Amino acid sequence: MKKRIGIIISLFLISSVSLYAQSSDICRLGFSYLISQSNNWAKGKPLIQAIIPYSPAEQAGLKPFDIIESISGIPVEQIGLNEIESLLNPTDQNEVLLTISNVSFTGKQVLVRKECKKANSITEDQLASAFAMYSLESTTERDFVCPFKTTTTADPVDFTRFKTFAFAAVDPDNRALESTINESIHNELSKKGFKLTTQQPDLLIQTFYFFDKNPNFKGTNKLVVNKEPVYRYNIGRNQMEKLPFLSPATSDTEVEYLLQLGIRIIDQVVLPGRVLWECEANELMEESFRLDEYARIHIPLMCMQYPYVKYTRNVPFHVNKKIYNYTGINFDIDRLEQVTDVDPNSPAYAAGIRPRDVIERIGRQKMNHSAEEFTSAYKRFITASWNLRDPKTQYTDANGFSPCMYWDTFKYPMIAELMQKNEFFPAFTYLYNFAPYVNSSGNNICTFDIKRGKEKLEIVVRPTLRTEVSVELQ
Q1: Based on the number of CB atoms within 10 Å of its own CB, is 124 exposed (0-12), middle (13-18) or buried (19 or more)?
Q2: What is the pTM of this model?
Q3: What tens digit of pLDDT does each residue of 121-149 get?
Q4: How big is the CA angle at 359 (ends 357 and 360), to the nearest 5 degrees?
Q5: Count of CB atoms situated within 10 Å of the CB of 385
């Protein structure tokens, strides 16, 4: 186990460094993209896939599934695939002008300012990942798969022409359930820019569902069958949840309940009655589960594949969740006590911390250790604190590290005491100072002892609690 922990930590630190290891300054816009292969949405054009929280792209208002029509005035049809990257990060410009199309508008110009960091910088965002074992409750990466079957029309119809929608008539016998389902769909389509209307809508939304006992169920030999727990991300509650679902490979005779939920989007304008898009979920279950609760959890995930379908079956998702104290300090990866930069308008900048300051202590903890020494002490802490975790919360993270566990809530005082021992070099626990298992006082402030030339300063910073959550198709 110790070797595996060391590998995971090394991967965190290596990935953190590599983001800033290509030149003296590395710049980003804050989004990832792919070249669309869909006949219905942005065929052959760059399609924004994911937005990094707090990035310039998010500040500029870009969203997943936005179509990039041109870069700095050059239509994408005239740009080779190998030229896109350089045009999105021009060396002689601090900003990039994109022309964007989506459901809400066509050909809108959006100016995105680049965010640049020194090559040797490591940010608090990256450090939160590197020291995630201090607080898996708030910082974790998880993967999961949903048994969705998603299909689109074989016709090369352009989905950008559909702007409005309406729902099919509600079944009076199931009004409460269908209202809940429709409300979830309404929320997701509205986020994408679609408008609800009852007057000649472009799209008609139909839903179908089923839940009942499996007539072929003959019981489960619980002593023989070793079920892998199923976790899904509940976007509404902002957390992974364990659910009573079974693997699709489970024998039909061992499945006690069957559940189905489907969404069908129907053309009302170009060829009325044509099904443009359909997503169907079929679950095998070992215990009863409410359909309305299933809809609340899964409709946001199902709708992530409209209007662009990346996977037709068994959709894989990746969750990256971070909640950490943000001060705005950027550290030197080779000399962690050195401040390389301070984000403008950040808590640290407002408090008076500046580039080239040397941090001698954070709280009572010394900073004069190398990255290797911090990593080694962190590994020692993980080993020493293993018996303070709750085995009932065990899960496998996105890196394949299987014995991830939350802290035992009954042992918070012991955890907080262990976390402050000097032998573990716990200076970066300040990232999670808001948590009771890190800081039992509840006073979420950070004190930095600074050396600036011959001057020594004590600077108190009141950090911002930063929440970054992204749920993406892999």
Answers
A1: buried
A2: 0.89
A3: 999 999 999 999 999 999 999 999 999 99
A4: 135
A5: 19
